[in-house]
Design a protein that fits this description.
The protein has about 270 residues and is mainly α. The chain contains seven helices and no strands. Helix 1 packs parallel to helix 3 and helix 4 crosses helix 7. Keywords: Membrane, Transmembrane, Transmembrane helix. This is Bax inhibitor-1/YccA family protein.
C-alpha cells in the first residue's frame, strides 16, 4: 500500500480476498454499480470491507462527535456567559488529552472496533465543543460557518478524488507528507518559543502570517483527504476485513477534526478584524 499522511492508514492489513474483488470509492467492478459483486453474508466476521461499511462507520463516528460537541458547546456557552472559564478549560484539556491517548492506542495497536473509535469521537466532541462554545459566544454564527466549511471541503475533495481530477501519485503523497511534517514542526516550535515569550506570529490574529498559516493548514488538510480516500479505496479492493472499517472511520475523523479547527481559527481571525 502507498504511504499516507494519516498514520491511521499506514499499516492497514490485507485480507484474504483477492485484490479487486470489492469495489472502492471510484472503481465499480460488476454486480451493483459502485459496490462490486454480491457480498458475503452480513454475519460473516471475516468478510471483506465494502464502501457501505466505511460510510456507515464514519457516519456513526461523526454523529457521536456532533452530538457530544453540540451538548458541550451549549454547556460551554453557559459557563462562559457566567465568566466560569475554569470548567471550560478543563473540558478542553481533558477532551484533548483523552482523544490523544485513545488515538495513540488505536494507531499503535491497530485497534479496529466500535468502542475505541466511538470513544475517540466522543472525546473529540468534548474538546471541539468546549472550544466552539467559547468562539460562538465571541462570534455568533461562527460554529455553523465552520461546520459548513468543513463539510464543503470534505465533499469537494471526495468529488475531486472520485472524478480523478487530481491523481494520488507517489510524488503527491511525498509532497503532502512533507508539508504536513513542516507544519507540525512549526506548530511545535511556536509552542516552545511561546513558553519563553517569543511570538512567531503564526497564531496571532493581528499578524498576516496567521492568516497565511491557517490557509496553508486548511489546504494541507484538504489534500490529506485524497490520501485518506486512496488508502481506504485500496483497503477495500485488497479485501481488508470488514471490522477495519472502524479503523478507516477513525483515520478520516482525525483529518476532519484538524480541518474543522483550522477553519474555525481562520474564521475567528476574519471576524476579529
Amino acid at each position: 500500500m502507498r504511504t499516507s499522511s494519516n498514520p491511521a492508514f499506514r499499516n492497514l492489513p490485507t485480507g484474504s480476498a483477492a485484490s479487486g474483488s470489492y469495489a472502492g470509492f471510484n472503481q465499480p467492478q460488476g454486480g451493483v454499480p459502485g459496490y462490486g459483486p454480491p457480498q458475503a453474508p452480513a454475519g460473516s466476521a471475516d468478510r471483506p470491507m465494502t464502501v457501505d461499511d466505511v460510510v456507515m462507520k464514519t457516519g456513526a463516528a461523526l454523529g457521536v462527535t456532533l452530538v457530544v460537541g453540540i451538548i458541550t458547546a451549549i454547556w460551554a456557552q453557559g459557563q462562559a456567559a457566567a465568566d466560569a472559564m475554569g470548567p471550560i478549560l478543563g473540558a478542553m484539556i481533558g477532551g484533548m488529552l483523552v482523544g490523544l491517548v485513545l488515538s495513540l492506542i488505536i494507531i499503535f495497536k491497530q485497534i479496529a472496533n466500535a468502542p475505541m473509535t466511538l470513544a475517540y469521537s466522543a472525546a473529540e466532541g468534548v474538546f471541539l465543543g468546549a472550544i466552539t462554545g467559547v468562539f460562538e459566544l465571541m462570534f455568533p454564527g461562527i460554529a455553523l460557518q465552520a461546520v459548513l466549511g468543513t463539510a464543503a471541503v470534505f465533499v469537494v475533495m471526495l468529488v475531486v478524488y472520485k472524478t480523478g481530477a487530481v491523481k494520488v501519485t507517489p510524488k503527491l503523497t511525498k509532497w503532502i507528507i512533507g508539508a504536513l511534517g513542516g507544519v507540525a514542526i512549526l506548530m511545535l516550535l511556536n509552542l516552545v518559543l511561546g513558553l519563553f515569550g517569543v511570538n512567531m506570529g503564526i497564531r496571532d490574529a493581528s499578524s498576516p502570517l496567521a492568516y497565511i498559516f491557517s490557509i496553508v493548514c486548511i489546504g494541507i488538510a484538504a489534500f490529506s483527504f485524497l490520501l485518506d480516500f486512496d488508502m481506504a479505496d485500496k483497503a477495500i479492493r485488497e479485501g481488508v476485513p470488514a471490522k477495519f472499517a472502524w479503523y478507516v472511520a477513525f483515520g478520516l475523523m482525525t483529518t476532519l477534526v484538524w480541518l474543522y479547527l483550522e477553519i474555525l481559527r481562520l474564521l475567528s481571525y476574519l471576524q476579529s478584524d
